[in-house]
Amino acid sequence: MGHFSVSVVGKDRPGIVAEVSRILFEQGCNIEDSTCTILSGQFAMILVVFHAKFTTIGELSPAFDEVRSKMRLIVTVHDLKDDEVVHEKAFAGHPHIISVYGADRPGIVYTVTKELARRKVNITDLNTQVAGAKDRPVYVMVLEVDIPEEVDMKELEGEFGRIRKELSVSITVRPIETLDL
Amino acid sequence: MAILPILKFPDPLLKERSVRVESVTPEISALIDDLLDTMRSSPGGVGISAPQVGILKRIVAIDVSASKRGGQQENHGLLVLINPDILARGGKQIVREGCMSIPDYTANIQRAQWVLVDALDRSGKQVILEAVGLEAVAIQHEADHLDGVLFLDRVTSVKTDVFRRKKYR
Fold it and tell me: pTM for the whole thing?
């Protein structure tokens, strides 16, 4: 028995989820976690599934050959070790939302995330898009991050100040506070 | 005075409608004391309702001054509301809510920015009060419990609005 990750990418159209979940059902897989999105017309889905008998990629992956050829989907299967499958995310730091926006230009994501990585800030969610009018595109990036206790927020804010000037973007860091009721 | 166990979803009692309190008896007073003890025993806990401890009576307690952000906003401090009715609502706000009865998740929920509430206080006297900001959120969240409505019932998108709690303090 074992866990697998299954990622599916292809031109968006109705029926992809139905076909992929039919194959998983017929193979005897249990879908434990999944998410999907559409990026510029490409449907992308990633699932974590469990099978009571299968342990190797070779036992599951060929079942998708049918949709690989018929629906032109790229389906990738990985086997996961038990200790890689974590149902409860337990991060140690403080959750924050970082919003970044400005005139579209190369390097915004890299410049910001490089500084986060250097401070061992873990990105737990990331969304980017180009918004605004065609002739005046605005690049928008929203990151959900976990900031470790040791990070000097003043120093990080100073670094962001430098990036704001360098790239002419707005960067705002806000703690995510939950109202516990 | 006692800390009572909190019912956790999917306990069916959380989906029940609670009944109005006819008069503030010594038993009701004792229940209110227990609710306050239970609310304060939860880290960051700023609200509780009687159905969350399995007692289907229309009683809630709220104290947003106990949270850092809530304490910085206009608030009434500790509020005990019996038979609360939200008479009017205004404006919109989205706040990330957590609930002792759904300990593993938090969610961004849209609520009114302002509410006008009619209730009895713990001495049984009628009060009409206005609340704004986080206190208004807390009142709407707890009043929902009295109708068997949980914050997950108010979510519009599981993908973008619901979060597995990354760490429960």
Answer: 0.66
